[in-house]
Structures are given as structure tokens and as C-alpha cells.
Design brief:
The protein has 232 residues and is mainly alpha-helical. It folds into 2 domains: 41 residues, no CATH class; 174 residues, no CATH class. 60% of the residues lie in helices and 3% in strands. The protein has a two-stranded antiparallel ribbon with strand order 1-2. The radius of gyration is 21 Å and the shape is extended. The chain starts with 5 loop residues before the first helix and ends with a helix.
Length: 232
């Protein structure tokens, strides 16, 4: 019997192996070691904290962001459409990215920065404080970090503009079950938010988070422009 495939090992992480697989794991140190590593990774991810804010805590979150200078507000808009509203998304992005030790999130999702997207936030809503998008010539580590931050912002803006153009042309931007896709994006976001707390300066973790936030914003914007039975 050859080595167990990655798919088989992944199944054994949560299910009992077949008798043949059990015998092989007892005889093959490579497969047994790979299985132990996958189990450890799964348990590690499962132990990450849930960073989602409690329900009904939007006012406290707004006050905290205002006090830290991350957002400006003339008062919480009570008619916000719940946890998936654009204003809450912007606030959540600011919390994750700034508490994570980066300056990526405070301007990237402001609608005024997106070409062709109208500023539709009502009076009294949240406005993210812009961050300059121009990167300085790279001559040291700090300049390199600035260049990465600027590239991530440009990527998010380009992705959202691309989604907008696809929507305007009536082209399908998503493949497969949209509900399952949104659930997958949410799972990636939850894991990356927790990872940011553990490794706030890690460029890979920050990149995954930024890409996930951009994809989620594009998905929600598409859902808001689609009839109720067209997405969910």
C-alpha cells in the first residue's frame, strides 16, 4: 500500500481510519507524522479565539474607535441595516487592522476612495479617516513596509472596481453556491482576525486578511444590488 494521500489524511483527522489505513499508519512513520501535524494544525485553529463583537455593542465600538482617532462620527446612525451594513464593515475593518498594528484599514474601504462608487453613507454614519496611498521609494525596511501597505490598498480598490464593472455589464462574478461561498469567506475572516492578534506584524497574515476583507466587501455590495432571490 502506497502513502496515504493528503485527502485521506485530512479525512482521518475527523473520522476513524479504515482497518487498512490504520495498519499503514502503524507501519509508515512518514504518514503518521503527517497525520499528527494535520491534527495539531486543526486543533490549533480550533482553539483560536472568536473575535466577533457581541450583539448590540455597536455604540460602544463606535465610541472606542472615535476615542482612538480611527473614525469620525456625528452620532451612530440608528437605521443601520445591522451587522452586515457598510458602516459596520468599515468599523470592523478599522478595528482588525489597527489593533493588528498596521495602517492598512483606515482608508481602504471608504467609498469616496472607490472610483465610480457614490458616497451613500447617510449623515451621522461612520467615516474612515483616509490614509495616504502613495508609497515612498524603497530604501529601507520601513519604506518596504509602506510599499506593501500601499500595494494592498491598490489591490482592494482595483478588485472592488473590477466587481463593479462586472456587475454593470451583467457578467456573473461568482461561481457556485453563493451562500456556501459567503460562509467560506466568513470562516477565513474569523481565522485571519484571530491570527492577526497572534502575529500582528506578519505580512502574510495581513495579506490574507486584506484580501478576505476586500472579497467580502465586494460580495456584500453585489448582494445589495441584486434582487433578494438572486444571491441568497
Amino acid at each position: 500500500m502506497g502513502h496515504l494521500s493528503i485527502e485521506v489524511l485530512a479525512r482521518i483527522v475527523s473520522e476513524a481510519p479504515t482497518p487498512e489505513e490504520q495498519i499503514h499508519l502503524g507501519e509508515c512513520s512518514d504518514c503518521a507524522s503527517e497525520l499528527r501535524a494535520m491534527i495539531e494544525q486543526t486543533e490549533g485553529i480550533g482553539s483560536l479565539p472568536d473575535l466577533r463583537p457581541p450583539h448590540g455593542d455597536w455604540e460602544a465600538l463606535e465610541a472606542r474607535l472615535v476615542s482612538e482617532g480611527l473614525i469620525r462620527s456625528s452620532g451612530w446612525a440608528g437605521q443601520a441595516s445591522g451587522r452586515w451594513s457598510s458602516r459596520w464593515f468599515q468599523a470592523a475593518a478599522a478595528v482588525v487592522l489597527f489593533l493588528g498594528g498596521t495602517a492598512l484599514g483606515s482608508g481602504v474601504m471608504a467609498r469616496g476612495d472607490l472610483p465610480g462608487i457614490a458616497q451613500d453613507s447617510p449623515a451621522g454614519g461612520l467615516e474612515l479617516i483616509p490614509v495616504g496611498a502613495e508609497a515612498q521609494p524603497i530604501s529601507n525596511l520601513a519604506d518596504a513596509a509602506d510599499a506593501v501597505n500601499a500595494a494592498e490598498r491598490r489591490y482592494m480598490l482595483a478588485l472592488l472596481q473590477y466587481r463593479q464593472m462586472m456587475d454593470a455589464q451583467g457578467e456573473p462574478t461568482y461561481v457556485g453556491d453563493p451562500t456556501a461561498r459567503f460562509a467560506a469567506i466568513e470562516a477565513i475572516l474569523a481565522a485571519s482576525r484571530a491570527a492577526i492578534q497572534q502575529a500582528p506584524a506578519d505580512p502574510f497574515v495581513n495579506g490574507v486578511l486584506v484580501s478576505s476583507l476586500a472579497e467580502r466587501e465586494a460580495f456584500l455590495r453585489n448582494a445589495s444590488l441584486t434582487p433578494a432571490d438572486g444571491v441568497f
